[in-house]
Amino acid sequence: MNSSLEMIRKINGITALKSHFTTLIEQDRKLAALQVNDEEVSFPTLYTLSSLITTNQLTKYLSDRNKVALALRKDILAKERSPATPFPYSICETPQLIHSVLKWIVDTGANENLNSKYRFVLDRSAGLLTTIYHDPTDLPAVSQLLFKRNHDSHQTHYLTWAYFSSQNFSCLLPIGERLASGDEAEKEFALELLHFIPGIDEAKEPYVHFRNWYEENLPYLVLNEDSYEMTAQLEPYCVDYMLKYKEQQTNTRYHDEEFKALPSETQKILGDFSYKLRKYSRSEWKEWLNRPLDAQVQSIEEVNHDTYRR
Amino acid sequence: MILIGGKKVTIDNFDERMIQNQFERNVLEALLNSPTTHTYRSRGEVLFEMQFRSAITASARELYYSGAQFADFYKSRCNPMFWDLLPDGAFQLKPGIPPSEAIIDIFRNGRIYAFECATAMIIVLYKATLRMLPPAKFNSLFADIRLWGWKYDKDLRIVHNIPPQYVPGDIRYVKNPDVNPLTPEWQGENIVDMGDGTFFGHGLGFRTLPGIIDALARRRRPGAMRMPYLLETATRPGFSYLYQFATMRHEERNQNVLLFDDQLSNTSVSIDDYNQNQGELLKEYITIRFPEA
After folding, report:
1. In chain B, which residues have their Cβ closer than 8 Å to the Cβ of A81?
2. Which end of chain B has fewer CB atoms within 10 angstroms, the N or the C?
């Protein structure tokens, strides 16, 4: 932590930081702005100084990172969004720059909690990252923020929505990792987010259960349009059991309509069994798949019965 | 089609006096004319659902005129006399406050309150339940209310699925898949089917379905390609479950109908029995005394 501004904020607090920065401005406006441009300066420091920067018209001296960050802050806090946006940087023209600034905001700002407006800016920045850029490398930082919000008893509603809106199934991994955490509250929140995984609530080792489920079902996961707004139980992704059953979307020769008409539990049983048999013996699986559906269901019952008897 | 005790019933089984308004008539006709079979234990249960659905729309209207504002969870607010505002934006009933009073306060002092659309729907359902159950029963059932989206709905036995048929008073959902990520509170809107071609959405007011879709479309991200759309799912409280508490009210207060013959000796029957045998009873008895409402 080489930046003096960072040290003052962390050691003496934000009032001292503002006072120090005001003195710097009185001495040399440009030099004051240059201190904010220091690579070591974090978003919470920039956020704390934002009103002083604006009222003293220092924006022109700021680095691109800081200019974009303050423009994003202003846009996020804008009361009216339509028809014209006050944000002066086009995402189309400078996509990488805005992406990197959003990442910087979340990376350096997630662990601070200045006030509710600040939290709002952080959550919305994380939402922009996941819903617009869809970059899987951003997911650990956003999941970190999500768990921090839960830890502090702050609402996670929009952030959860934004996180799963990344439309990247690998976003389940950073949550699943928390199932192995020693922190019970963290584990509980991870279980709440992953409740849609069959059997996870009853699993003796939820982390192992999650990993097995993830590895088995990843190729067959699809987006689900459910959301917290319409149900208490968010189910962002679900398993396409027909795909799991027949392996490839293009395999249309297998009883598609008949399969769709089955109860969802039977679809799940067929999908799971088909996957296991395919893994065990591809030739046996092909032979099994060509049987009529009711014969397939019956063969599963027989296998289960034999397993039970053993 | 409606089945009561295994028997198909028609509109003739329902006396005009049992149907309080056009909305209830529409609900009844929708259920009677449905290709789906709706099974009830008694005619009283059918009437309860009709009245409950009517109470849902009345409560939606009441919420609109209360002046309660739309706000995301960051800006939720409530009357601190009745509720604690939690850090996550939820409203927790204060200890010692009767939940019925706290729910009524939202409608009485709406301008003090701000919440988003899912919480609004739960509030509407609580208020409708309060219209249908006596306050004492309501207070014992919902002693520890916490209002936060759809998350705390266990007491209402909310059913959320794709129903075989939509009925006025249902809560539907219009999804806005390309919502502007800066305004995720408009990712969709929970709406009450008002039964007259309009829907109520908290923050949007009363609009037709195209009107709701248009309002959400204005809250999409720049360059959005997908329009908002109505989902097939519907949300309803557990009418059948809650009915038992309404019927218990009758039992608790001994609300039977008193019948007096020409010797002025009296006998009593339940309201349901009276409704079923009304024609015969009117011929046999000279005075009929109804319990107080």
Report:
1. 180, 182-183
2. C
Judging contacts by C-beta atoms under 8 Å, the chain A residues touching residue B88 are 153-157
pLDDT band, very low/low/confident/very high, at B275 (cuts 50, 70, 90): low
Which of A43, A62, A81 represents a domain boundary (last residue)?
Answer: A62
DSSP chain B: -EEETTEEE-GGGS-GGG--SHHHHHHHHHHHT-SS-EEES-HHHHHHHHHHHHHHHHHHHHHHHHTPEE--GGG-B--TTTEEE-TTS-EEEPTT--HHHHHHHHHHSGGG-EE-HHHHHHHHHHHHHHHHS-HHHHHHHTTT-EEBTBSS-GGGT-EEE--SS--TT-EEEEE-TTB-TT-GGGSEEEEEE-SSS-EEETTTEEE-HHHHHHHHHTTBPTT-----EE-S-EEE--HHHHHHHHHHHHHHTT-PEEEE-TT--EEEE-HHHHHHTHHHHHHH-SEEEPPP-
Q: What is the pLDDT of residues B197-211, one digit of tens each?
A: 999 999 999 999 999
ipTM, interface predicted TM-score of the complex? 0.77
Of B72, B117, B150, the CB nearest to A232: B150
Grade residue B252 by pLDDT with cuts at 50, 70 and 90: very low
* Residues linked to residue B83 through DSSP beta bridges, in sequence order: B93
* pLDDT tens-place string over residues A259-298: 888 888 899 999 999 999 998 888 888 888 888 888 888 8
Question: Taking all residues of chain A, what is their mean pLDDT, rounded to a whole number?
Answer: 87
List of chain B residues whose C-beta atoms are within 8 Å of the C-beta of residue A232: 149-153
Mean pLDDT along residues B124-135: 94
Total number of domains constituting chain A: 2
Residue B187 has its nearest CB partner, among A132, A161, A232, at A161
Residue A268: domain span: 241-310
Assess whether pLDDT exceeds 80 at residue A108.
yes
Contact between A162 and B184 using a beta-carbon 8 Å cutoff:
yes
Domain finish residue from A44, A62, A80? A62
The pLDDT, as a whole number, for residue B293 is 42
pLDDT higher than threshold 90 for residue B104: yes
Residue A90 CB neighbours (<10 A) = 11
Closest CA relative to residue A102, chosen from A130, A74, A79, A81? A130
**Which chain B residues in 225-244 lie under 8 Å from chain A, judged by CB atoms?**
231, 233, 235
In a domain, A39, yes or no: yes
